[in-house]
Amino acid sequence: MKNVYITRIAKFLPNEPVENEEMEEKLGIINGKASKARRIILRNNQIKTRYYALDKEGNVTHNNAQLVAKAVEGLCDDTFNKSEIELLSCGTSSPDQILPSHAAMVHGFLKSGNLEVNSPSGACCAGMNALKYGYMAVKSDQVKNAVCTGSERTSSWMKSDIFEDEVAHLEAVEQQPILAFNKEFLRWMLSDGAGAVLLESEPNGKTPLKIEWMEGYSYAFELETCMYAGGEKLEDGNLKPWSEYPADVWGKMSLFAMKQDVKLLSENILKKGVASMKLAMEKHNITEDDIEYYLPHISSYYFKENLYKEIENQGLHMPWEKWFLNLQKVGNVGAGSIYLMLEELINSGKLKKGDRIFLQVPESARFAYSYAYLTVV
Fold first, then answer.
1. In Å, what is the CA distance from 159 to each residue of 26, 179, 337?
2. Which candidate, 139, 152, 131, places its Cα nearest to that of 88?
3. Which of 91, 107, 297, 353 could form a disulfide with 126 if both were Cys (CB 3.0 to 4.6 A apart)?
4. Distance from chain centroid for Cα 300
């Protein structure tokens, strides 16, 4: 087995940062009324700026695959050409279409020559699953290098016109034309962007990071769906997919909008997160003393203090000085967030040889968690 190193890292954030007061202008107003939930949600998540692949008029400037292609191109220079990439592994929650796969579409924009593509599906863990596939491929000497990415382009999923059919339908049946909170919640949470890493079996580059190990855990066997798109959650907790609904109700029910069961999220995301964190740390016999930088992907600063408390409650300790977050500046980029955090840390100038970095990525879709442990070499 080969050693595996992150030797290059790049990001692409579209357009200019969007301030809180600009969000509704970009995404649009639903039913002609400003959102009452927006300020409450933003006060809790404490995100100050985010990025949208939309211009000033709300027109799309990049699709998801184009965002990723830009990030991948950021890995390349005179000493490493995109034609040298042997494996392209791309994870996202928000692919541009059902078929072809996300990585195939990225490859189409790169026009980089023949290579293997891999497109893990899912939510936030999709970016880590993309990394793990590349990690295993390089480690087992299947390929000499791999480019792995995480990205989201959710802004177009959150635009007001996505919900207009549903609001019109509610008015027609004499119901209150108010969007359900589980549909509106994510409108004020998500951001667009892409991150990419180059994996190689030699510690090249200015700040190479050795991937010591990666782990993943799922609690779908005991918890029902929490975040979803392309279906509707039934009273019994099961998810009914869009393909089982008549086409004429897809818009009336906003079936393709991203939705979140907020109550289920708050009850489980931290407890299962720390439980799986303990499993990973115990399996590899590490403690907080073996970690210089802790990078937890959190969707909102609402969870920051509570995550710290839950870590303490379950018998672990993670001092604040080890935490590294950038949510306030770039927003919640889902599968891309961990790449953007790591990119900022690497370029901060803080890292020194021997530093160890612990990555933690939860996804609330059906409660899955991914981990990676890195060493600066």
1. 8, 13, 21
2. 131
3. 91
4. 13
Helix (H) or strand (E) run with residue 282 in it: helix 262-283
Q: Which segments of the chain belong to CATH 3.40.47.10?
A: 5-208, 213-218+261-376
In the chain, count H helices and then E strands.
11, 15
Q: How far apart are alpha carbons 7 and 33 in whole angstroms?
A: 49
Element containing residue 50 per DSSP (H, E): strand 49-50
Ramachandran angles phi, psi of 144, nearest 5°: -85, -25
* pTM metric for this prediction: 0.95
Q: How does pLDDT run across 149-197, given as a tens digit for each residue?
A: 999 999 998 888 877 777 676 676 666 655 566 678 889 999 999 999 9
Helices (H), 15-163: 23-27, 37-45, 64-73, 102-110, 125-139
With residue 302 as reference, give the H or E element that holds it: helix 302-313
Distance CA 140, CA 147 (A): 16
Rounded to the nearest 5 percent, the helix, strand and coil shares of the chain are 35, 25, 40
CATH number of the domain at 5-208, out of 3.40.630.30, 3.40.47.10, 3.90.780.10, 3.40.50.1390? 3.40.47.10
Asked whether the beta carbons of 21 and 50 are under 8 A apart, the reply is no
